């Protein structure tokens, strides 16, 4: 009974962990798309500033110096856009160069971001046919099997019969 339940737990965790490489791939695609769009906005702003004889900082200073609330708010919005572009670009570079262990260690970063949540909302499971997917499945099976086996053993201890060793007396 213990082995069967542990096997079911192992298979369940294997299926779950085998999906991580696919999630990471879908996340990376979404992240790349966001970086590409922010790059277009950033380059367009920089080009417009350059045509006016300004650099980005000078153009943002103009927005900030404006007495028009709309323009000063727009300048702060653009500054946040540039910061997000830098952050997402760095994340994309870090993820693209990461090995499978580094990507798994950074799982909370995938889940905490807006892109990570949207990726989970639209996630499509896939059959793991890569070495990475198979390794995650194997690790999930071992972890699930051993965890459930240990739990079953611990919780069944009070219900076990003690063996009495009969030793005849002389």
Commentary on this structure:
With 170 residues, the chain is an all-alpha fold. It has a domain at 28-102. 78% of the residues lie in helices and 0% in strands. It has eight helices and no strands. The protein has helices spanning 2-18, 20-51, 56-65, 69-96, 100-105, 107-112, 114-121, 131-156. Helix 2 crosses helix 4 (69-96) and helix 3 (56-65) runs antiparallel to helix 4 (69-96). The radius of gyration is 27 Å and the shape is elongated. The protein starts with a helix and ends in a 14-residue tail after the last helix. The model has no long low-confidence stretch (mean pLDDT 84).
Mean pLDDT: 84
Biggest sheet: strands, sense, closure?
none
- Helix/sheet category: mainly alpha
Shape from CA axes? elongated
For the CA atoms, what is the radius of gyration?
A: 27 Å
Unreliable spans are none
SSE layout and pairings?
Layout: H1 2-18, H2 20-51, H3 56-65, H4 69-96, H5 100-105, H6 107-112, H7 114-121, H8 131-156
Helix pairs in contact: 1-8, 2-4, 2-7, 3-4
Q: Which features characterize this protein?
A:
170 residues, mainly alpha, 8 helices, 78% helix, elongated, transmembrane helix, transmembrane, DUF2937, membrane
Describe, in short, the structure shown:
The protein is mostly helical and 170 residues long.
